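Q: I have two molecules that I believe assemble together. Could you output structure tokens for the complex as a whole instead of separate predictions?
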Amino acid sequence: MTTVGPPAPGTTRLDLGTLGFEQGAHLLLARALRGTPRGAAVEVAGTDPALLPHLTAWCRHEGHEVRAAGTGSRDAGRGADTGGAPVVAYVRPGALADARLSGAARAGGPEPERMAERAPLHWGLAARGALVEAGGPDVPFAVVDRDVAWTDLAPRLYRQATAGQWDPYTAVDWDEPFTLPDEIEAAVVQVMTYLVENEQAALVVPGRLLVQVHPHFREVLQLLAVQAADEARHVEVFTRRALLTGGGMGTSSAGGRASLATLLTEPDFSIASFLLSVLGEGSFLNLLSFLERHAPDPVTRRISHLVRQDEARHVAFGVGHLEHRAGVDPRLHGRLRAAVERRHDALIGTAGLNRDVFDSLVLLAAGSWAPEDIRRGWQAVARLQTDMDDGRRHRLSRLGFPDDEAAELSALHTRNFM
Amino acid sequence: MREEILLGAVAYDPKVVTIWTGFRAWLRDQGLPFDYVLYAHYERQAEDLAAGRIDAAWHSPLAWLRTRRLASAAGVETRPLVMRDTDRDLTSVIVVRSDSAVHTPADLKGRTIAVGAVDSPQSTLIPLRHLAALGLTPGTDFEVLRHDTGVGLHGDHIGGERDAARALMAGAADAACMIDTNHLLFGQEGTLPPGGTRLLARTDPFDHCVLAAGPSLDADRAGRLTELLLSMSYEDPVVRRLLDLEGLTQWLPGRETGFGQLTEAVDMTGFYDGDGRVTADGYLP
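A: Yes, here they are, computed for all two components at once.
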């Protein structure tokens, strides 16, 4: 306890009543001290029997100066005269009261427009716009530059994504009756098996990207989190449709898995987003339209429709991000091109699309084994591949690739579609 | 003479490693050759400081008194360098359950009083000396219920004090002794129900830990270490993390005025003899 002399002019009174430091009295004292000018004191009154030792212990820890109100002095009975609690001590704010925030800085502003271009690692998990105490551990997020992951579309896409969430158990009428010939049902099951495998890749990749990004760019994390949640639902509905009629799953080819595995190993945020969302999920938009059009049953039609809506948002984010990055990084096009070529080279010795999947798509579009129907189905799948190519070239053009280069890169895309 | 200043600290908690590793790095960054060693208890640290096997020690108040006596007997010098702002003017309290029939210290006659470990200044030695000064002799006028957790750590381990508080609430004791800070802590954490205890007595203010220099630390190096520690600023985020762990906002010059009650307690109980030998009954760190 330090002797601080008689109360200075401007001393403020804090009457704690029966409240003790065991039950939060320090909140009131801290508040009173915050409003007390340097040199002035807070006169603390209260009736808790342990008030003085507890107040003294708390102030010692906080660096505040305490003078106990003396018995028998002019302090004694103060307050009691006016019907209030007796004065127990005088407290002066310590010189170090605000030292904890010395060197603290705002982590940008809460709005996207005021985010920092580069987020320091020591901001860690702090909310954007928070007053961040200096020090603290560096949290090693790989993506700390806004332009490496950002698009101005992110806040709006996140709002759309949350509004567009659907419940896999109620958004589809799973009990709607239908009967399919065994071989058509088997084709549906095979396509569903393929879709589950691809959606699992599309679930893992945004999960991996999410943990790389500094939370300062929170809308990107939020969007990736919803994207992963979308894919989790897709895995659910495709699995459920595959098993709906009581059979097992179809086949998984080595070539298909090899193609997807190359997506998992891409460390760069923009390139991973390019390969997965722009090229892979972009191609899937055509595939899902194809399935919605040629679905032999209402459940397959419905889930293809629902999933396509989500995938369109994923593609919009990928394209939006790469447009943003291409605007600030002139070397991006060369790196994207190299990534497509590298992936093509890595997959050159593999079979690409699972043969069973291709045949199933033909049969679904044909609707029967009649030779003329098969011819029509074959042509529909050929048209699907052309549509996928057109879509990729269109998106590559949007990213600034000249038409001939866009055509060349689209042709190098994996035969597995994703 | 060692070039480095070698300091001893007692490993009463895993955080001690973080604290002294941090201080070591900071002091070396300031150009002071500094290293530290850890001890399992204060008695060996006090002996090693007086014997010059270490140059300085982060000492409990009891270890400081013992070092003083050992050094005096050996004819060598020791001195306090710094202490924490939170080491000055502490008090201990003797509390009873709020519904207790004990209303004055004299009512404790024939009762049981829970204390911390045998070597705890704040929850055993000083409060028992306080009661003795009020005319109540421990073991004669009342029974002492000791809680020997972390013996040799001189009360740094809070477990003994918390057990004393629990014994009070369980009815195994009529009163319990603890430092003011821990009475507040136990109320906040619920070991003692808020308002469930009543203060029976409070000791006079006393001082606690000391960073002490031994005979092997010359004045120049002692001065440099003192100057650097006093310059540590709570505004520096690197230092602040360590000061928060060690429980201070600034280092203050060491002083010897706050150890009177503990000195009397040591003599009253025969804890150490005049030459610093351990003479306490049943004390086995």
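A: One point stands out. Chain B is about 35% helix and 20% strand.
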